[in-house]
Each structure stands twice: as C-alpha cells, then as structure tokens.
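Before relying on records like the one below, remember that each one covers exactly one chain. Contacts with other chains, cofactors or solvent are not represented anywhere in the record.
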Amino acid sequence: MALDLKSACVPMDEKTISTLLKEGDFQNAFQGIVSLYSEKLYWHVRRFTLCHEDADDLVQEVYIKIWKGLPSFMGESRIFTWIWRIATNEALNYVSRAKLRSTLSLSSYASRADRIIDSDPWFDGDAAQRSLSKALARLPSRQRAVFCMRYYDDLSYEEISEITGTSVGALRASYHFAAEKVKDFIKE
C-alpha cells in the first residue's frame, strides 16, 4: 500500500493512528506516529545519550523497532506508552553499552558524560541546564528514566508504571531518590 501523502500532511492524534493500525494501514499509521511524536521522542532519547548525533542514531533505531512492531501491536496499551517503552528500553541499553565502553577505556562514565555535555555544539541550555544534565548522567539508569519521564515528559506515575512495568510505589520512591541526588549534585 502506498503512502497517502494527503493524510500524511494532516496532523494525526492517537485515535486516528489506532484506527489506521486496526485497518492494517501501517504506512500511514507509522507516518502519523513520526509526525505526532518525533520531537518528544528525540528529546526523551537525547536525555540518555547526551549528544545530538547519538540521539539521532538511537531515534532511528527506535523507529525501526516501531515499524517492525506495528503489525503485532495489539492495542492493549496506548500507542504513546508502547513507543515510550521501546524508546526507554533502547535508551537504557545505550547507557549500559556506554558505561561498559567507559569501563573498558579506564575512564568513568560520569567524566565522559561531562565531556560530552561540555563539548556538545548542539547544547543550547544555560549553566543551570548544563548542571542538571550532568546530574542526570550520574543517576542510575532506571532512576534517570523515571526522573526524565516524570520531570520532563510530565507523565503520571501510572503511565510510567505502564511503560516500565514497575509499581507506582517503587516509582515514587525512585523519583524521590533521584530528585534528592540531583539537588545534592547541583548544590556541589
């Protein structure tokens, strides 16, 4: 089935995308997903990768997984939740690989993250934003994911629970500990 350029230009919502998926129109559903979520998805992933080029590469990997998974999407969760689960898992895998590379190169992941943040020509934040980015890079991966989804994406604990498969109580505790660590780092 060819991509319907007329509908691709019209902004879609989740309900329209769900309808397209039920009809088996995966190309237009995918186009709707890209149109609806591309910027949010980029920034979600960027908070883990810390640099523009790696974020772009990782977003492409996420889109490949989304495309391959569209035919098997059952609609048991919101499309957004499904996409964020894929993106978060890919981002956490990226961080694990980055930490392993840092260990193998005998440098700490935190110092590597600081260098990336300080030298990133695409970073357009002020000093406070730079400090927050460095603080987030020091959080354990799962805490960083919870913090970012709650603080930046403004997701409820229930939505984060759906994405991560973690209980709401554990998420609240994780966010609290992450916020305290961020505050402590910024005070230093």
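The chain has one domain: 13-187.
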